[in-house]
Amino acid sequence: MSEQDSGTRNVLSRRDFLKLLAAAGTALTFTPFVPWGQFMPNPSNTVLQKAQVMLPDGTQANVKTFPKNSSQVVTYPLTGDSVLDQEAFRKWQFIRLPSELGGDTEDVSAFRVYSMVCLHLWCLWKYWPQEGRKRGECPCHGSMYNPLTGKAFAGPASLQAPPSNVLATLYLEADNDGNLWFLPAKWDINVNGIIGYGRILKT
Ligand code: FES
Q1: pLDDT digit string (tens) for 7-45?
Q2: pLDDT at 140 > cutoff 80
Q3: Tally of domains in the chain
Q4: Arithmetic mean of pLDDT, 146-175
Q5: Residue 138 class from Cβ within 10 Å (0-12 exposed, 13-18 middle, 19+ buried)?
Q6: Is 123 in the pocket of ligand 1 (CB under 6 A)?
Q7: Nearest C-alpha neighbor of 42 from the set 87, 108, 1
Q8: In a domain, 200, yes or no
Q9: What is the pLDDT of residues 163-198, one digit of tens each?
Q10: Is the Cβ atom of 139 under 6 angstroms away from ligand 1?
Q11: Do the Cβ atoms of 155 and 118 come closer than 8 Å?
């Protein structure tokens, strides 16, 4: 099957799934036994590899230069196809934590990467660095996400049963120059999580 064919099929299945979500409404919250994860359109048809964390300005993110308490939208996995690379399911908030949450450290522990697809109804949330906020906020229905863990702490996403209250994440590695890389993701609720569905938070 060509990538275009599989892309078309994913778009259709997403639309169908969104209709299902709209029909199911809050039922999703109370049906954790349904294996929703198997229906999610994660970009699993791409072979995932270690990849540079490329910022919108075309440079590679670096632990020495990326500003504390700030975020950028990054893409993973990149395909090189400008249309596919715009998919919401490839968009991540790349966050350097504020100082009080460990953002001063010059290694990967100062950073977090979370899927931008809100766990409620798939709007795109973003990180707000302002004093008194310093959290992820979804503009649609007000779900809020803890930047340290990716766990929803307010709004409808916070009422969903695990794993659908914790965002999918990407893990990082820094090379000797401080340049940051994404480690290959595994779309599994116990590893990186499943985009738009969730992740089991390790304690
Ligand atoms: S889509 Fe409803 S809170 Fe994000």
Answers
A1: 444 444 554 554 444 444 444 444 445 554 555 556 555
A2: yes
A3: 1
A4: 98
A5: buried
A6: yes
A7: 87
A8: no
A9: 999 999 999 999 999 999 999 999 999 999 999 999
A10: no
A11: no
